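[Solved] Which block belongs to which protein?

Original post:
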Amino acid sequence: MKKTVLMAAVFVAMLFGASGQGWAASLEANIDVSSQTMTVRYGLSVYRWSVSTARTGYFTPRGNYRPQRTARMWYSRKYHMSPMPYSVFFHGGYAIHGTGAVRQLGRPASHGCVRLHTANAAAFYSMVREVGFGNTRIVVSN
């Protein structure tokens, strides 16, 4: 009897484990530097937000990335302890994060990071934390 119950439990665990991975939500953020927008696809939902990427003299790296780490609040040691709320780091010190400089959104204004309205950064941060780094893709292109 014990053996039958154990085998049934293993079967159920395998069944739910396999289906859980297949059903895992995916998250994709496409950052278009030329239009200064970020389009987020999260399951069936699509969001489009204005961003600020690198201003003249600075660079936002292009390519395909996965999140490397997150921080609910980060302070840039490189740029005078500037606050970076809801940071999702995707390439070394480059991150998608909130900003208080909302008037600058929609045009290049950063030192290379991707700046978002703080409410949108909080939403994106939560999505990344929910689906996990492995199910999140960040694409930065022209």
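(Second protein starts here: sequence line, then its structure tokens.)
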Amino acid sequence: MIFIVVAALAAVLWVLRKRYLVVTVRGYSMRPSYLPGEKVLVRRTAAAKVRRGQTVVFEAPGRTGEGAVAEAAPPPGSFVVDVGLLIKRVVATGGDRVDFPVPGAGPVVPEGHLAVRGDNVDESFDSRDFGYVPPERVVGVVVRRLGPP
């Protein structure tokens, strides 16, 4: 009986781990919404389900595969939440126009892509620096804070 309970608990934890991720905020680009050292719960989500206004976690530009580190590392003070991950607010989704220049791209967000920006725009490494976020780089959306820093 105990084996069945332990096995069921392990299965539930495995499913939750596949669906959710806990990340630690680093940097100041999302102040005042999120502070350095704060932990947030992220629900793994496809880019197609992300909406304008949500806070999204995604692989940093320059990552080339699992465990890779961004070649063009964000500057100090950027909002890196874990190795190779960034957290930003979605300001536009596919088909929306953006009101800021995007390197190497036009003012309309390509289908499936996201335009992101930090809440603290003066200290943010975001779409104004690296362009639109492609769908394969999206990890998920922040669903809640897990506690103060």
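Accepted answer:
You had them paired correctly. Confirming on the second one: The two ends are 40 Å apart (CA to CA).
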